[in-house]
Design goal:
This protein has two domains: about 270 residues, Tetratricopeptide repeat domain (Serine Threonine Protein Phosphatase 5, Tetratricopeptide repeat, Alpha Horseshoe); about 80 residues, Alpha-Beta Plaits, CATH 3.30.70. The strands form three sheets. A five-stranded antiparallel beta sheet has the order 8-5-7-6-9. The chain is α+β, with helices and mostly antiparallel strands.
Length: about 425
């Protein structure tokens, strides 16, 4: 959302005295991406219906990616943005979308090259600054984050940028500036501003004020959030950003997640969207970190509404993958990620299950494991470039396997599966 890609995006907030649910979603998923007054699930279903007959419809691919991202399904969003990039490689929109996906996955280093490419293709910082700012925040680079958030105040993501700017200022210890930044949203009754204000107070050490603020918007759940709010000031800057923006909390073994969202089937969209409350399990997480470990999960299979078979977004063309290299992999290679999770020992079995869907397609293909501080990734590759990776990803999708492109950083350790 798997790490965050399993899908773990969203801080759901029940407003006091109301049934509305407020969601913190990636900024790239916000704005007027749909001409209809509809839920994200309904929008996604509509875009998928379009893609069933027009698999290379660029607007539908971008819209589907943003809708999936808003729903928290970053793996599906990555697939849609990758296809959009294949259709229009000179557009900055797919690159900005993939950057937002990486941020939502808690992978800021992987996100930055996408934003750089989007800017090179003509996108103004205001268009992606809200998401790149969060990437910087997750890296502990608050000054750069705040500059991007301020640039995004003039874009479509202005309200979310203002909330994130307030949180970033609080992480920097600037409570007065943070509250001043948030004041316009509080004044207009923005429901998410109440949660943000509580986090600002907690981040700057005012636990009593934070509890009072959270009680005003979440009276039924304020007690369960007390451990979360009290522990925030003790975290490092990057950990604070992950906790208040993504619901990712460190435990004794690395990173843990407050909750994991189920795989969704949008074949029968409802009137509203159902998302995971990442803060709902924070109290359980604090009581027993080992219970919060996210299991490795296979990517969801997508189906178009009212169809019994999977939509073929592109005719599968089987192209031979570049020859497998040795375990010593040069940096900055393009891979396809099939799964990830905190337990590397589960990946060989996962690879066998995935490969069994079409042994011929995987003929000669080896699995690799990339280790990061918070998870291990199951990879295949490396590929000659993004085009080859995308072609093979389409082949995989034709047999019900969802994969997305991933580029390793210099610090990633990649070894053949079974030797890690």
């Amino acid at each position: 959302m798997r790490g965050l890609m399993g899908i773990r995006w969203g801080l759901l907030l029940a407003c006091a005295g109301a049934a509305a649910v407020v969601t913190a979603v990636p900024a790239a998923a916000q704005g007027s991406y749909s001409p209809y007054n509809e839920s994200p699930a309904a929008a996604l279903a509509r875009y998928v219906r379009t893609l069933a007959s027009k698999p290379r419809d660029f607007s539908a691919l971008i819209g589907a990616g943003r809708s999936a991202l808003e729903l928290g399904d970053t793996q599906a969003a990555a697939g849609f943005f990758a296809r959009a990039d294949e259709v229009s490689p000179r557009s900055p929109l797919p690159q900005a979308g993939m950057g937002a996906v990486s941020v939502a996955n808690g992978e800021p280093l992987a996100a930055l090259p996408y934003f750089t490419r989007a800017q090179q293709l003509g996108a103004p910082v205001a268009a992606f600054g809200c998401d790149r700012g969060l990437a910087y925040d997750l890296l502990g680079r608050q000054a750069e984050a705040q500059a991007d958030y301020r640039a995004a105040l003039g874009g479509l993501d202005r309200d979310e940028a203002r909330r994130r700017l307030a949180l970033s200022l609080a992480i920097s210890g600037k409570q007065a500036q943070a509250l001043e930044t948030l004041a316009p949203l509080v004044a207009k009754g923005d429901p998410a501003a109440g949660r943000t204000r509580a986090f600002v107070l907690a981040l700057t050490g005012d636990a009593q004020g934070a509890m009072s603020a959270i009680s005003s918007v979440m009276p039924a759940n304020s007690a369960s959030l007390a451990p979360f709010l009290q522990r925030l000031p003790t975290l490092q800057a990057s950990q604070k950003a992950a906790a208040v923006n993504l619901g990712i909390f460190p435990d004794g073994n690395g990173t843990a997640y407050a909750s994991a969202a189920p795989t969704r089937n949008y074949a029968a969209p409802t009137s509203g969207s159902v998302m995971t409350d990442r803060l709902a399990g924070v109290d359980e997480l604090l009581r027993g970190p080992s219970q919060a470990a996210a299991p490795v999960s296979q990517a969801p299979t997508w189906q178009a509404p009212a169809q019994k078979t999977q939509v073929a977004y592109a005719a599968p063309v089987r192209r031979q993958v570049a020859e497998q290299k040795s375990a010593s992999v040069p940096p900055r290679k393009v891979w396809l990620q099939l799964a990830s999770g905190p337990n590397a020992e589960a990946l060989p079995g996962q690879f066998r299950r995935i490969r069994s869907k079409d042994p011929e397609l995987f003929d000669g293909m080896k699995g690799y494991v990339a280790r990061s501080p918070d998870r291990s990734r199951l990879l295949i590759g490396p590929f000659r470039g993004p085009s080859d990776a995308q072609t093979f990803a389409q082949d995989l999708e034709s047999v019900g396997i969802n994969a997305f492109s991933w580029t390793n950083s210099d610090s990633d350790q990649i070894v053949p599966l079974g030797t890690e």
